[in-house]
Amino acid sequence: MEFFDEVVMKVFKRIGLVLAAAFLLAGCKQEEDEFNGLVISSNYNFVEAEEEVNFCATFYKDGSADSSEVVNFCVESDSTGGAVLKSKSAKSGEYVSLKMGTVAGGFVKVVAECNGSSAYKIFGINSSEEILASDKAIGFAGLGVDMSKMVNTVTVSTGSELKQYAKKGGHVIFVQGNIDMSEGMLPAEGSVMDGSSATDKMNSFVASKSEYSSYGEWIKNTTNVSASKKTDTPSISNAYKSTIQITVANNTAIIGLDGACVRGGSFSIRNVSNVVIRNISLKDAVDPFPHHESGDGWNAQHDLVSIDNGKNIWIDHCTFEDTLTLGKAANGEKLQVYDGLCDMKSTTTNVTVSNCVFKNHDKTMLIGSSDNDGANDPAARKISLFYNYWLNCGQRCPFVRNSLCHVLNNVYDSDSNRIYNSQTSINARAGSVVCAENNSFGSVASPNEAGGSISYSPNSNFNPESYYLYVTLESKAVKSWVKANAGARQ
User: Fold this and answer.
1) Is residue 386 classed as helix, strand or coil in its secondary structure?
2) Cα separation, 159 vs 178, whole angstroms
3) Measured between alpha carbons, how far is 199 from 214 in angstroms, rounded to an integer?
4) How far from chain centre, in Å, is Cα 115?
């Protein structure tokens, strides 16, 4: 919020200079008109399901509250499943009670009218502690995610089962326990990914797919660019990817039971619609056989979650995390075995990433793979990022091209475990319009506005309220609320 306050003060200072100049030119004092109209106030924006919330609408005339006027109320929209106003009218300044419905994550918009003036207030229901298949998607994903199309239910506890049902479509898949998509090829968490801690299964895999007998030998020979002509090994890289990739079909929800973890997997959401991934700890989407890029060392080629031409996608209450320390290539360059945590490209749209934790990663979230991905059309992709906790992330939180992106109630921070230098948080680039509201920036880089636009409240270019309802958290509570609620349930 400190960054937000700084921006606001800069704007006010500029306005002040302009007004001062106007006063000098006019040679007289100018006074502002006194306020006339309605103001709605309440102590709370979020409440529990079926709880009553009190609010009042006050009509002001010539800058003073007028208690003689009668204010009329109505519920204009409701996604909570039956919100009820206890009174349809009240005197100006009197409190009115609204009983919320039962749907966690739902919103109610109440409109007040008085003497030709109108105002509105939006109230939300807190997310329930239990993650249910019936929960409603929020933000842009709420415009199209339809759980009724996922007609079958199954519980899986192995990588083969997860891959089998994810590609079928039409399923709600409950994930139980810990699943290792690498089938034992990844070393233990906290190990260095350089061959020194390679498992027997990784060594056997390398021996079966290459001329080398172990992963350490593969690194020693293949990544020594000065001594080897072969600086890329797509065959072994693709073979590993086919082992760990989870291809997700249309109309699929993947929901972790409490404590569920998928390690070493890469979720591919490509050319599909209506996909939900919730309540899973997602770790180490490692590419052990990265591609060499001149001037930039060795770089991984797949993401933890990759959304390519996807529509109506909801990623919620997941924890994205790296646990392996990066090693060095034989030629001394970096050996980057991680790519993005959640990347989006092509005609992907109507996506919400909410209540998630992103931690200990460098290039975290890329939206738009190049300046030409989206043809400089900010409406090419519509993305909502709500209530996420970005901890120890170096950059791309997100990096946005050619998209409308609403970044609301996010927390950016670092701690003593930080590995990557904080470079940028919200990076708005070619063709993007980002509405960033009520975010908390701790000891990290503040937003980088180069190449795009960031507005700190809805504006004429992009007003999120024209698409969906949402509520900002109380400013003082943003950091504590998000830290307490984001991530997979353990």
Assistant:
1) strand
2) 9
3) 9
4) 41
CA 17 to mean position of chain CA atoms: 38
**At residue 9, does pLDDT exceed 50?**
no
pLDDT in tens, 362-418: 999 999 999 899 876 777 799 999 999 999 999 999 999 999 999 999 999 998 888
- The maximal CA–CA distance of the chain, rounded, in angstroms, is 88
91 half-sphere exposure, CB direction, 13 A CA radius: 5
Question: Residue 259 maps to which CATH number?
Answer: 2.160.20.10
Which residue has 């008085």 as its token pair?
114
| H or E element at residue 16 | helix 2-26
Per the listing, tokens 């079909």 go with 249
* Structural domain span for residue 309: 139-485
| Tokens 């797949």 -> residue | 302
Question: What kind and span of H or E run contains 419?
Answer: none
Active site residues: 396
388, two tokens: 């996420």
Instruction: Examine the domain organization and report whether 326 and 233 are in the same domain.
Output: yes
Question: How far is residue 132 from each of residues 47, 258, 346, 466, measured CA to CA in Å?
Answer: 19, 11, 30, 28
Give residues with Cβ within 8 angstroms of 283, minimum separation 6.
189, 261, 262, 263, 264, 320, 321, 322, 323
User: How many domains are there within the chain?
Assistant: 2
30 falls within a domain: no
**Does 184 share its domain with 58?**
no
Residues 51 and 161 in one domain: no
Q: Domain boundary residue among 103, 125, 147?
A: 125
State whether 165 and 114 are in the same domain.
no
